[in-house]
């Protein structure tokens, strides 16, 4: 096989998802990612780490080797290797192998903290899975369309927790656990999001009244992002419906997961590959 | 009564819901299921179990006998007994009686754990009630239509809790209760779902900042499944509306709970029995 | 003034809301209800109850006398006194005065529990306020329209918490605080509703995994009632819009809070008094 | 430059947002506000306050001087200084500088409480940021349109927590932490909003049953505000769509964030400045 054909063949297997080999590669990669995450998670459990120390380390080296080969092959067969290396997925693929090499080549950097940090940074391998969530474009587009409203929402929440945090700091004071404004703002976030750990709670009557107000506020403003996302999703789903046209009778209005035209029964474009122009 | 007629008569009572006798049978069965659940629940309360040990055991035998007769009758009168036995409800009906027999026939398996497990497995009798929730098809259809979006949503949540759990594990460390990555992921789930038990909470400033981010994220992505379900339900309810036609004037657009045609007032098909073709 | 005219005059003041005197009566009554609730709440605070014992008791007698006069007047001026006495508001009005009389006339029933219960039952006076929430008919109608779906939703939640509660009872057992199935079901409700008190938490690995599943399930099924209510409210608001017609140009499609016709500017019927036929 | 021209020039920079200088002024002001908030927050952390006492105090004086100059300039260049001083932003701008002056000029008022209160009141400077959230008008309009429904919703929640709080007070009593009705109502709010601190929890069986009911109720009524906001936002977004017209072809129906006409491609009015008439 000439070098050019090999490159293209590899490209179809590694980057493509439409051939049998391409799909098999993807499934193998997902299994490898999940297994390497399992190794990382198991390593963090003291009792398991003690007993299986060597085995886990060798497995880790094996996975790093595997992902390194994958990275080099992607660089090799990509028509634009530099664009790939700079893309979101390229950076993630590099980040997935870097920590192990760093820990291996610089054993002198044996501060426990650095080593542990490098080890855990391997968790970002989980982001390699994002590649397989590309169906998520309707969700993402809804979020993007609503990004200005979401920003305003978070600014409002930010202003509210600053005010409520500071007020509770004055009302309750350091003796009741509210030792500083940052800690009080943390309490306000815990309360307004209805998480409610209970590690810091108001003790005075006035503090409880303020806390009640914060909760009721949080409870009701929770409705705002929901309303935003729902309204955007409704719009998006209708837009999508308008854009899918039957190749046979050219009539629109098909659902986003329709496989056949509802008027004439002709097969529609694969729902996964329909692209909606902005 | 000839054997064939008896079988059909039993079939109408046991499987049907449209005759008076069929409805009476259903109500009696629901009462029996709820009572047998009550026996199971009471048995688990130490003070009650001590005092009423024998009574509860005999009640349990009575219910098992009852459900066994029901199961045999269903097998007997069903036109396709094997299909029934293999169906969801057939398996549930068998599971509802099996544990008591196993505990009865194998008293040698007297490991406390096994017995207790068998006893509690009787809880799956509650699933016999699902048979009576068949009106739930609009809800179920909405969930099914949105299953791809829901899967993407859960994958995203999975990736997020893996990353946040690992980061808090590095930041807080075993000394603050975050003893392993699985436990830290458990904390991330407790936080992102806004449950907030408070059994493990961040102690450091950086940990609290990360926790705040997790909460705000959880608070806002909560909006995504709501938006999905609402958008699907809206679509589903409109679709339903289009499909209900008046038998007299043949005009459509009736609400899913309309009893009479809004144009000519003729009675419509019973809302419970309308079937929407997919 | 003849007796008949007086009765009608009183009826307009006490039951009506359209005259100046009627509105003044309503506002005075709301203030009296809130003040009597304040007395009840203050009485329950030990330090205040000690210091102001006599004053609070006399205030309570005064409010009871006031509400008794109101009740008698309502009975007197109502055209159908028995229908009023049997109605929701008639029963509430009686319940608002009964506890004080019972405690007064039967001091022999001085078991602390009974007295305390009677005292707190006065809290149901708060329900007298419901009379003034009649604008809530859109909300209530949406809830009523969706009552079948809401019932199915609660049955599903009931089945889920029974199963999860029983499973955690087997997994964790009495040593970790899950002493009985009712208590374990309580835990499941605390978890699935994302309340998360933290008074009972899973200790084992398997228990934490099950708890994570419960949380994620609760987090996502929370979307279902929201979707139901939103879809019904959307439908209801559109229906409402269709039914409001301009008295001048007879065109429909006005918003539920529009005061003037959007086509010709004529004044529309008062939004509070528009009645939507079911 | 004549005095009149200077005033107008300053007005465009300080109040306007459309010139380069105006935008630069806004960005500088936002940075100053955030920095002064940072100083306030840092001052509340004991360890930092101890070490950087003098520096933080001088920074505080500098920011107060800056905001004072801003306030005086706004008064000077505003065409209607008294209207400005009485407006929401005028009051906020005054509140942002007042506490420091009060603490400075009345050192005799050295009760710790007063000083601390004055210091923390500077937090209201955060409200100066609201000026820059003016894009929020769709959100605000939706909330305003739904204000009657939201009021009814909060009244309903108020009635519910009063009843549930009083019932749990009778059931659990002071021995289990429910020492008074206000405290019990606080518990009911913590529970119904699904915050669930866990500082007060029911101990008796009946109390736990009531708590379960409260949670399930809170879990489902959470759906009501969401439904209200979503329905209003849907309406609002559609209304907005109708009102944006292309200056070239005069056709409507553009999305609220569209920059160009979807029919002829002409540039539309800046989305930030479109005003929707009520």
Automatic annotation (TrEMBL), chains A, B, C, D:
Predominant subcellular localization, coarse grouping: membrane
Annotated signal peptide: none
One Pfam match: Ion_trans
Residue stretches spanning the membrane: 27-46, 96-118, 150-171, 209-231
Top-level taxon: Bacteria
Entry membrane topology: Multi-pass membrane protein
Cited Gene3D superfamilies: 1.10.287.70, Voltage-gated potassium channels. Chain C (1.20.120.350)
Protein name according to UniProt: Ion transporter
Keywords, comma-separated and alphabetical: Ion channel, Ion transport, Membrane, Potassium, Potassium channel, Potassium transport, Transmembrane, Transmembrane helix, Transport, Voltage-gated channel
Listed InterPro entries: Ion_trans_dom, VG_K_chnl, Volt_channel_dom_sf
Residue ranges of every copy of the Ion transport domain listed in the record: 23-236
Location(s), subcellular: Membrane
């Amino acid at each position: 096989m000439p070098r050019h054909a090999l490159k293209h063949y590899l490209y179809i297997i590694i980057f493509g998802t439409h051939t049998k080999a391409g799909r098999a590669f993807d499934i193998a990669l997902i299994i490898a990612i999940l297994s390497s995450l399992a190794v990382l998670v198991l390593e963090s459990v003291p009792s398991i780490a003690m007993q299986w120390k060597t085995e886990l380390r060798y497995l880790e080296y094996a996975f790093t080797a595997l992902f390194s080969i994958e990275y080099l092959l992607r660089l090799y067969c990509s028509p634009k290797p530099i664009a790939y290396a700079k893309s979101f997925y390229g950076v993630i693929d590099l980040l997935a192998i870097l920590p192990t090499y760093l820990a291996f080549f610089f054993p002198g950097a044996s501060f426990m903290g650095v080593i542990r940090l490098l080890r855990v940074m391997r968790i970002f391998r989980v982001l390699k899975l994002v590649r397989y969530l590309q169906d998520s474009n309707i969700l993402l587009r809804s979020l993007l369309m609503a990004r200005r409203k979401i920003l305003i929402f978070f600014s409002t929440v930010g202003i509210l927790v600053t005010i409520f945090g500071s007020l509770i700091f004055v009302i309750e004071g350091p003796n009741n656990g509210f030792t500083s404004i940052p800690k009080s703002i943390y309490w306000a976030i815990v309360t307004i999001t209805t998480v409610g750990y209970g590690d810091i709670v108001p003790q005075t009557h006035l503090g409880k009244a303020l806390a009640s107000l914060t909760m009721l506020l949080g409870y009701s403003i929770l409705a705002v992002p929901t309303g935003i996302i729902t309204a955007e999703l409704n719009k998006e789903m209708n837009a999508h419906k308008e854009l899918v046209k039957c190749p046979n009778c050219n009539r629109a209005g098909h659902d986003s997961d329709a496989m056949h035209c509802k008027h004439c029964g002709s097969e529609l474009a694969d729902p996964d590959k329909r692209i909606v122009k902005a």
